[in-house]
Write a structure and sequence with these properties.
Layout (H helix, E strand, L loop, with lengths): L10 E5 L2 H4 L35 H10 L6 H4 L3 H15 L3 E5 L2 H4 L10 H16 L3 E7 L5 H7 L6 H17 L5 E5 L9 H5 L9 H26 L4 E7 L2 E4 L4 H23 L4 H9 L10 H7 L4 E5 L3 E4 L3 H4 L25 H15 L3 E5 L17 H19 L4 E7 L19 E3 L11 E3 L1 H11 L6
Parallel strand pairs: 1-2, 1-10, 2-3, 3-4, 4-5, 5-7, 6-8, 7-9, 9-10
Antiparallel strand pairs: 11-12
Helix pairs in contact: 4-6, 8-10, 10-13, 15-16
């Protein structure tokens, strides 16, 4: 076997979120979450690339009235709630060193603002963590992965209200105390920057109830920054040996040409993406964002002590999701052509996935080097993967060579970054078991090494089957990345 460039204690594994795998939305005392309200819209009926949000109280009330008559895929997930032992045994068979999962906040505090937790919810995660530790798999736990209790939206309009900081702090302390002997790797908010694109999903904001949406979003984000810092403080006090990180949806941006207008636009977009990690890793608001707030009539209301807690309780490591890269143009007319997912212009040098996401393995190496140069803290790739249509052959096999090719190329570039001196803690491939898509609520958009027999409408046996990529990833882990 060739020698591996990956550290001997490298954390190989896979990643999921409670709202995409657990199901059992109305069992065990769980309250409704914001994602429980997202209904499935078939691809041919969608008006945009993603369908994640709810924009008004009227829309929310309509969805609540549908109750069981609508198709709400995130309520059913893939039944991890009842099948976690079977699923974790498969993860162990692949050799996982870590498994990233989230705790459903409304499973612990059904309404979000109670003082006492739901014991049945706490017990469920005790059981899950015990099962992971039985196999020597370290839990990597996200405190808030688009899992805001719905009551906090209805009652407070989400994170706009400062009181939600206290509710989250109580929740974080509760789970730190409960699982201090079982979990030593934590993340605060999943893809914290998503609030700027989807205010409902990131911050629980109904935009029809605010006058200045951007003002509301950045105020809510300030509250999340404070809550994150408080969680870091509590984690370090309650579990001194633990490590706690932040999590960013990384948007690597290239200028379309050497035209200085394109280069400046790419830099501006880059700064707005890294603003979130600047606050959580460096501990203060960068000057370029303060200027942006001034130019756009945004005033962040801070309480005494906010700046101090941000400065004193920065994260131990930076984690991020990486799926694609963007291309920026200083020409507004060019941008209207729409290049990739959210924004930008087309990149003619890259192929795209079935969902139009540009595939750019080298971009992962670029972003690892950039992030490490900027922050000099350990990095953790906690989401990376290929959403694709899978076909079950007549003999029951699933030959997903396209997924193997995607992951191989990205892991290779991660290795190159490590050789160049970047400190990378681990890699958790997204959707290690097929799950409900966050962006479109589809089941047919599959990421996993493990196939789950369920369609977009909830039909199927939920049987688990290994794909070809299962054994491939098992070998990658067994050789610590030396053989891809």
């Amino acid at each position: 076997m060739t020698e591996s460039v990956f550290p001997k204690d490298f954390l190989w594994g896979g990643a999921t979120a409670a709202n995409q795998v657990e199901g059992a939305y109305n069992e065990g005392g769980k309250g409704l979450s914001i994602f429980d309200m997202i209904s499935f819209i078939p691809k041919e009926e969608r008006t945009k690339d993603i369908e994640m949000g709810v924009s008004s109280r009227k829309e929310l009330d309509t969805l609540l009235a549908q109750d069981t008559s609508g198709n709400f895929p995130k309520r059913r997930g893939v039944d991890f709630y009842h099948r976690y032992k079977e699923d974790i045994a498969l993860f162990a068979e692949m050799g996982f060193k870590t498994f990233r999962l989230s705790i459903s906040w409304p499973r612990i505090f059904p309404n979000g603002d109670e003082t006492e937790p739901n014991e049945e919810g706490l017990k469920f995660y005790d059981n899950v963590f015990d099962e992971l530790l039985k196999y020597g798999i370290e839990p990597l736990v996200t405190l808030s992965h688009y899992e805001i209790p719905l009551n906090l939206v209805q009652k407070y309009n989400g994170w706009i209200d400062r009181r939600v900081v206290d509710f989250f702090t109580n929740y974080a302390k509760t789970v730190f105390n409960r699982y201090k002997d079982k979990v030593k790797y934590w993340l605060t908010f999943n893809e914290i920057n998503v609030s700027t694109m989807e205010p409902y999903i990131g911050s629980g904001i109904l935009v029809d109830e605010v006058e200045h949406v951007e003002q509301a979003v950045y105020q809510a984000l300030h509250h999340q920054f404070v809550a994150s810092a408080r969680a870091v403080k509590a984690c370090h006090e309650i579990i001194p040996e633990a490590q706690i990180g932040c999590m960013l949806a990384r948007m690597e941006v290239y200028p379309e040409t050497p035209n200085p207008d394109d280069v400046l636009e790419a830099l501006t977009q880059e700064q707005k993406n890294l603003f979130f990690t600047d606050v959580q890793v460096r501990g203060y608001y960068p000057s370029f964002m303060l200027n942006y707030f001034k130019d756009n009539g945004i005033h962040i209301e801070m309480q005494p002590g906010d700046e101090e807690i941000l400065a004193q309780h920065t994260v131990d490591f930076l984690s991020f999701s990486y799926y694609m890269t963007m291309v920026a143009s200083g020409d507004a007319e060019r941008v209207k052509e729409k290049g990739n997912f959210f924004t930008g212009v087309p990149n003619p040098y890259l192929k795209a996935s079935d969902w139009g996401w540009k595939i750019d393995p080298k971009g992962l190496r670029i972003t690892l080097k950039k992030l490490y140069d900027r922050y000099q803290v350990p990095l953790f790739i906690v989401e990376n993967g290929l959403g694709a249509y899978d076909t079950v052959e007549e003999d029951g096999s699933i030959i997903d060579d396209y997924r193997i090719d995607y992951l191989r190329a990205h892991i290779k570039e991660m290795g190159e970054a490590i050789k160049e001196g970047v400190d990378v803690m681990g890699y958790t491939s997204w959707g290690c078991i097929d799950l409900i898509s966050a962006s479109t609520s589809e089941m047919s958009k599959r990421y996993g090494f493990i196939y789950v027999d369920q369609d977009d409408y909830g039909n199927g046996t939920l049987e688990r089957k290994k794909k070809k990529s299962f054994d491939w990833y098992k070998h990658v882990i067994a050789t610590n990345g030396a053989e891809l």
